[in-house]
Write a structure and sequence with these properties.
- Keywords: Membrane, Transmembrane, Transmembrane helix.
- The chain is of the alpha+beta class and 173 residues long.
- The protein has helices spanning 11-33, 36-46, 48-58, 121-172; strands at residues 62-66, 70-73, 77-88, 94-104, 108-111, 115-119.
- The chain is built from four helices and six strands, in the order αααββββββα.
- The longest helix is centred in the C-terminal third of the chain and has 52 residues, at 121-172.
Length: 173
């Protein structure tokens, strides 16, 4: 009755079909597992609380306490003009006596409040990573400079040996 499968399938063909199905299942699983950058961005856009929770767990803010203090500013001396007294005496001139008072003002006190300084630890982490990259880059440059020096020295020695052999070869002829 079976028109398509009149013959009995061989073991090799069954094995081939099973392996093909396993290969297709493995490809489907691997392709579905690769969500990529856009998928991650879409997920974060739809679920921002996940990103916020991860950031708070991995990068908690660093808080430092800076106590307040009291600063004293010394007082100024202020000149206050006094009354003017007219004195008519035995002379024909009028004498003016002015009294000027100098007053010492009391010192001023300035109180600075206690301060809590909160630093974003994710920014500190990024800056430390950038600093590490710069340090690695500087070490690479130093290594390349030292390698360049050895390359120059070996090139100069090779040139001298070539000149020596050329001289000896020309002298033989």
């Amino acid at each position: 009755m079976n028109i398509i499968f009149d013959k009995k399938p061989t073991t090799a063909s069954v094995l081939f079909i099973v392996l093909m199905w396993l290969f297709m299942i493995a490809c489907a699983i691997s392709f579905s597992g690769c969500s990529g950058k856009k998928g991650y961005q879409k997920y974060i856009r739809n679920h921002p609380e996940v990103l916020a929770k991860d950031c708070m767990e991995n990068f908690p803010p660093i808080e430092t306490f800076k106590p307040g203090r009291i600063d004293t500013i010394p007082g100024k001396i202020i000149e206050v003009p006094g009354d003017t007294v007219f004195v008519k005496g035995y002379t024909r001139d009028t004498i003016y006596i002015t009294k000027t008072k100098y007053i010492q003002c009391p010192p001023s006190l300035i109180c600075t409040p206690d301060t809590i300084i909160r630093v974003d630890s994710s920014a500190v982490y990024l800056l430390n990573g950038a600093k590490l990259k710069i340090t690695e880059h500087e070490q690479t440059i130093k290594k390349l400079k030292s390698d360049k020096l050895w390359l120059t020295i070996s090139g100069a020695l090779l040139f001298l040996l070539t000149c020596l052999f050329a001289y000896l070869w020309i002298r033989k002829k």
